[in-house]
Amino acid sequence: MTLTSHTTNTPEMAPACITLDGSQGEGGGQILRSALALSLITGRAFRIHRIRAGRSKPGLMRQHLACVEAAVRIGSATAEGAALGSQELTFTPGPLVTGTHEFRIANSGSTMLLLQSILPALLLARQPSDLVLEGGTHNPFAPPFPFIEQAFLPLLRRIGFDVTATLDRPGFHPNGGGRCRVSIRPAGDLKPLRLGDMRTPGAPPAAWARICLAGLPRQVAQREAETLRRRIALDPEQCMINEHAEALGPGNTVHVFTAGDGFANVFTGFGSPRVRAEQVAGDALASAEAFIASGASVDEHLADQLLLPLAIGRGGSFTTTAPSNHTRTQSLILQEFLTITVTTEPIAPTVWRVQVGT
Hints:
- The protein has 8 helices and 16 strands.
- A hairpin with a 2-residue loop joins β15 and β16.
- α1 packs parallel to α2 and α2 runs parallel beside α3 (111-123).
- The radius of gyration is 20 Å and the shape is globular.
- It is α/β, with parallel strands linked by helices.
- The strands form 4 sheets. Strands 1-2-4-3 form a 4-stranded mixed β-sheet, covered by helices on one side.
């Protein structure tokens, strides 16, 4: 099946091929993933050079190739230069293919980053899609599944997009093997998303935690839970331990959730053989505590994730902490493909307002 876009919801687009410098901004894989997503939405081809030029291993790695291959399949596209180590890629999209798709990433490559590349176009389709993603679901340096489930998707649904995700089993570094399902249905009437200051800086919002454990002694999670309860006074039912016997390899994550307006901000500590359980919990807590002290509505990671949905929807605004390089880079890429405006302005010492206009 092919896509018929919600053209009334899509900003004005130009037909020309776009040339991108992959070293600009944060200089990593985000530029490529965002370009793939926007190319599928707009039908515009792009050429990207100097891919990941600032990284220790520049060029396309397996994770990035998996995103390109998924976009090629979803978009009936051609991709010249799609090879390991390539620093140049030309991507030309065709008709969007909705329906059922399965994507498997070797080892623990992030399924959530692959999802970034193809979900936005499918959100605008007039036909439903069902995705099965296998690989890493709880990865360092990538949004873990609980972030997508509790922070990102609730706000997409608030905009008017119809999307849900279910985790069948987690996949941790380095073994991977996780599995999740994503269901996308045609969007309803899209609405602007506006998230302002919702609390006094430093005033603690409702909080809870979830510890994910696979193939490790339960005492690891118990030590993490004790650290959490001691630092933020959680009741036992607010600090759940989920043991995953179905996982294909060992792993451990600690997720701290702070309540927003119909969503949660999510802060994660990732277990490692060289890191004590108390430190894993402490990493998640430190990020949560810094965010709570700011008074912003969304944290820096959710901020850069929200820009694209707002740009293809009805716009909106939110407050966040100082925009990261990822947020600034996303703003630049969006304005290469779409006729929109993205503005950021400080409104308090630790709070910025971000506005997206279409």
